[in-house]
Amino acid sequence: MAKPMNLALRQMLEGMTLTFDAAAAGDMDATLQFNVTGAEPGTYHLRIAKGDCTFHLGAAVDPTLTITTPSDVWLKISRGELNAQEALMQGLYQVQGDFSLLTRMGTLFKTPESTPAGVSAYAAPREQRPAGPIALSGMTWMTVAFIPWILFWVTFHIPGVSSWVSVGLPFLLALFIVVYRRVFAKPTWMEWGGLGFFTLAGILTLVGDSTFATWGSVISSIVMGALWLGTLVFTDMPLSADYSKWGYIKRMWLTSLFIHPNVAISLMWGWLFLVMAAFGIGAILLPHLETILTVIRFVLLVPGFIFTSAYQKGAANRRIANVDEALARMRTWAIVGLVVAVAMILTILIAL
Q1: Checking phi first, is residue 144 left (phi over 0); if not, alpha (psi -120 to 50) or beta?
Q2: What is the pLDDT of residue 5?
Q3: What are the residue boundaries of the structural domains of the chain, listed by start?
Q4: What pTM, to 2 d.p., does this model score?
Q5: 9-108 maps to which CATH number?
Q6: What is the Cα–Cα distance from 14 to 76, expressed in whole angstroms?
Q7: Inter-residue contact 10 to 44 (CB < 8 Å)
């Protein structure tokens, strides 16, 4: 697989951590700083220590080597379109500090090895997965985490099915998932949220709450939307990333090359569940349209899965000119979504 060719300068520098060769570095302790001018200005540094390489925004305290370069020059060097030594001799960029570090960059940062078609150069080792005796991949665990909700949605809308079945079975499965993951790893927001929702649903069922008997399915969609959006506001790891990360080498997890597409996917799912909730509200308030609105509500899951699959393809090679601004905008929309979720809950309570 060729090295990514269409990345922004910030993304390219982050990507250097993924091609870092720890064996070549040995016990090196160094900091490589980039002062970037031109179309994509910024200051960044790479910290090499204890056999690892990490990317950081801003200037370093005491860089070992500082490279001052226009963004287009370093992008051409990174893509192999320009020889680094020749560009330096021509004065296209400047260096200050330990020049020997510059000469070692070709061995410290290597081009990803060729991989079979469709396989990421940064794919995780085959054995990497969430801890525990059940040998499931991260994305399979995401499917498992969805099962309690799917059971609830299906049984809630089947006439004659006892609420003890529609709530009890999802609760037991959600409890098993959280206990298992708590013992061997760490439950995700989706897993904790599922247990919390079905615990509350069980309590409301136990006391015979008529509100939940009518609005339970709609409320579940609102809660699900809030869970997806909440991870974009209150955590550093988007909900989808908690599962998809297991498919990539661990260095990838902290880069915007991984975080950005997962923020976009989690934002989409959060809003999709809120739209589904809106159709659910319509189905209750407009009984003569209940069937068609309910069908539309759950069919909306299909484009959600299609978007997720399509967006993930080539996500790590997608150019984002200003990734920090893009992430900030999406997190703003996540906050808006959480406000909408609260407004929906209040609307239901007021309507009653």
Answers
A1: alpha
A2: 56
A3: 9-108, 138-351
A4: 0.86
A5: 3.30.1050.10
A6: 16
A7: yes
